[in-house]
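Hi V.,

You were right to ask for the full record rather than a summary. Here it is.
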Amino acid sequence: MTVKVDVSEISIVVYCTDCASWGELAFDVAEGHRIAVDHEGRLHPNSRVAYTNQYKWQKRRNAA
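Predicted structure:
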């Protein structure tokens, strides 16, 4: 299971590789990660992929 935060120049799309009919738009990358972690916690409670990705993103952002 992977929840992806896909960032382009014009949009931020969050989608789950296991939930074909689920996806959301985010206004910024931080919101995208929050959406991903929330989805993972509700529907895939044994997974930590989105949480780990959010942690790594925050760590990179804070290091800059």
